[in-house]
Write a structure and sequence with these properties.
Layout: E1 7-14, H1 25-38, E2 51-55, H2 64-71, E3 79-82, H3 88-101, E4 107-115, H4 125-132, H5 135-141, H6 145-159, H7 164-179, H8 192-197, E5 200-202, E6 205-206, E7 215-224, H9 225-231, E8 236-245, H10 260-273, E9 282-284, H11 290-299, H12 308-313, H13 330-334, H14 338-352, E10 366-373, E11 378-385
Helix pairs in contact: 3-14, 7-11
Length: 390
């Protein structure tokens, strides 16, 4: 990062994730932004914000940038909407980071939000399909999200020692974490037996292998290094960001047991941060389906290829283990409003690295947030640290 300015996160906040039928996105956005402003230790005046990035996928309320500006009183600054499938939130963080690190702005706002559980007559299903996959190919084959990820999971279970029981262990772990998270959507503990006995959605995914549809918003305040002390004595620093792409259509993918987009994004983020996977103390990993978390362990370098099952068997990725993953509950329990998800992962890490998290990981110094989507054609990663980057 020697050629870039250091960038600090000085505030972060989010709404509850859930089925907010009584709230629109115009309600959720100011809730998240207001909590973010309140989280700044030494106070914050919104007039200091010079630009904003808004990650939103479903776009249920029309002109997204204008809605953020109007609902949050940001009418005098540029607002840029980001959409990159389920990597939208972390990509919004990446773009805001680039703007501050590159010297274009000193103080910026990042917001992610989506209103998936829509109450209007317009169905958001087609928004999801059109924004996350190739409609010309996937729609005629019925390759909605569970089906296309099931192609990966089925092949992964065939080639690796992992079983549906190991997938169930992921669900149980994340529900255990989410049970104590007041902002999680599914605050309920489950057992491996319940996961395996649940109704089948698409082989090998039962109901408890799948993330819920969610409404919610999350936000962060990013500032240049020279301003960090003005707002807090405990800034969290962005150490690295990464973006990776892969082919969209499954018949063009060389190997369904790995997500090349994640591998590329991880390499870029680790290189920028100057660390290796073993330096990560806590991670928020994209678990839209349980098998995706297992595959991502390997793609992120947390274990060797096809060894992910060993991590869940040893409870290494539970809070109290050697590498806690999804202490927030992950997408599986906390919820998944796709535009907000990556930002909310960073909110969790902001709290972890300041020793303020509900499920605090002792001694956490470096955190990683990861998304994959589109379907598995895009990945975005943000690495955060307690200490100022060198």
């Amino acid at each position: 990062m020697s050629s870039l300015r250091r960038v600090a996160v000085v505030g972060a906040g989010m709404t509850d994730f859930g089925e907010h039928f009584g709230l629109g996105i115009k309600d959720l956005l100011p809730m998240a932004v207001s909590e973010t402003v309140r989280s700044v230790d030494k106070g914050f005046d919104r007039s200091a914000i010079e630009a904003a990035w808004f990650g939103e996928l479903t776009s249920t309320d029309g002109f997204a940038s204008g809605i953020l500006a109007d609902s949050c009183g940001l009418l005098d600054i540029p607002v840029t909407r980001i959409e990159n499938a389920c990597a939208t939130g972390n990509d919004a963080v990446r773009n805001a980071f680039i703007a501050v690190a590159g010297g274009f702005y000193d103080v910026v706002l990042v917001v992610g939000a989506d209103k998936v559980r829509e109450t209007s007559a317009r169905s958001t299903f087609w928004d999801w399909m059109g924004n996350t996959r190739d409609m010309a190919w996937d729609f005629p084959l019925g390759l909605v999200a569970p089906a296309n990820f099931a192609l990966h999971a089925t092949r992964y279970l065939y080639e690796s020692p992992a079983t549906r029981e190991h997938m169930a262990m992921v669900a149980v772990k994340n529900h255990n974490h989410g049970f104590t998270n007041p902002k999680a959507q599914l605050k309920v503990k489950i057992t491996v037996e319940q996961v395996l006995a649940a109704p089948m959605v698409v082989e090998p995914f039962g109901l408890y292998d799948c993330t819920p549809q969610s409404d919610g918003a999350a936000a962060m305040l990013l500032v240049a290094e020279h301003l960090a002390d003005r707002y807090t004595d405990r800034p969290v620093w962005i150490h690295g960001v990464g973006m990776g792409l892969d082919r969209v259509m499954h018949q063009h993918k060389a190997d369904l047991t790995t997500f090349p987009a994640t591998v590329k994004a991880a390499k870029a983020a680790y290189t920028m941060a100057g660390i290796s996977p073993s330096d990560v103390d806590v991670a928020e990993v994209h678990d839209c389906f349980t098998a995706v978390e297992l595959i991502s362990y390997e793609d992120l370098g947390f274990c060797e290829r096809f060894d992910a099952y060993k991590l869940v068997e040893a409870e290494a990725t539970s809070v109290g283990g050697t590498l806690p993953v999804n202490p927030s509950g992950g997408l599986k329990s906390k919820g998944h409003p796709p535009g907000a998800t990556g930002v909310a992962q960073c909110v969790e890490l902001f709290e972890q690295l300041r020793d303020q998290a509900t499920n605090q990981v002792d001694g956490a110094r470096v955190g990683l947030a990861h998304n994959v989507g589109g379907p598995t054609a895009v990945s975005a990663i943000t690495i955060l640290g307690r200490h100022r980057p060198s």
